[in-house]
Amino acid sequence: MKKYKKVLLVCAIAAVLLLLGWYFLNREYKYFMRSAYPLKYTDIVAKEATANHLDPAMVYSVMKAESNFNPDAKSRAGAIGLMQLTPDTFDWVQTKLKSSEKYTEEDLYTPEINIRYGCKLLSILFDKYSKQATALSAYNAGIGTVNSWLKNPDISKDGVVLDNIPFEETRSYVDVVLKNYENYKKTYQFNSKGENMNDDETWQGRSQKNVG
């Protein structure tokens, strides 16, 4: 009888240790994922994602792929800021937003302006193209380029889906953004206002350094 009780006690201790191990591993995994896929400029993203009917997870995914949240980023092609807009694209999107204020290239370094117009561009592209990969290809390669691909039966059989993406850079870009998107969707839960809903105090405290 004593031997039986000892076995039960050992099994109970083992079960508790396994549960504790699972708890701490799960907690550290969440911390790792939130460190690898941070939320920055949250107030601006929530506002602009909601205004443009975008999934905030997609906005963060694009921003991470484009600049890794560096507002001063500038590419060799001249794309600027968090969402990497070129001055020409910026000027074009300004005609769509019809703001009373005319912004210059230097304004693209301002996070609020860059995210506002980057989200507007994403919204235009997601309205224009029914497939995420096609819209993201246009964000990277341009609308004219993607439209020409869709007219090519060797690239798109139905004129809607890109069966292959000819540019390696664009193909890699789309893969990265969609992978980011998958991980952001797994890691966070957003409400209808674009706000993250599953942060407890510990995670909020640990992520303060991620606020832009």
Structural notes for this entry:
With 212 residues, the protein is mainly α. The longest helix is centred in the N-terminal third of the chain and has 35 residues. The C terminus is likely disordered. Helix 2 runs parallel beside helix 5. It is globular, with a radius of gyration of 22 Å. The chain is built from nine helices and no strands. It folds into two domains: 36 residues; 173 residues, Lysozyme, CATH 1.10.530. Helices cover 61% and strands 0% of the residues. This is Lytic transglycosylase domain-containing protein. Pfam families: SLT. Keywords: Membrane, Transmembrane, Transmembrane helix.
Q: Which terms summarize this structure?
A:
212 residues, mainly alpha, Lysozyme, 2 domains, 61% helix, 0% strand, Lysozyme-like_dom_sf, Transglycosylase_SLT_dom_1, transmembrane
Summed up:
This protein is mostly helical and 212 residues long. The protein has nine helices and no strands.
Order of helices and strands: HHHHHHHHH
Number of β-strand runs: 0
What's the domain count? 2
Percent of residues in helices: 55-70%
Count of DSSP-assigned helices: 9
What's the structural blueprint in terms of helices and strands?
Elements: H1 2-36, H2 42-51, H3 56-67, H4 87-97, H5 111-128, H6 132-141, H7 143-150, H8 168-187, H9 201-206
Keywords: Membrane, Transmembrane, Transmembrane helix
Transmembrane segments: 7-25
Protein name: Lytic transglycosylase domain-containing protein
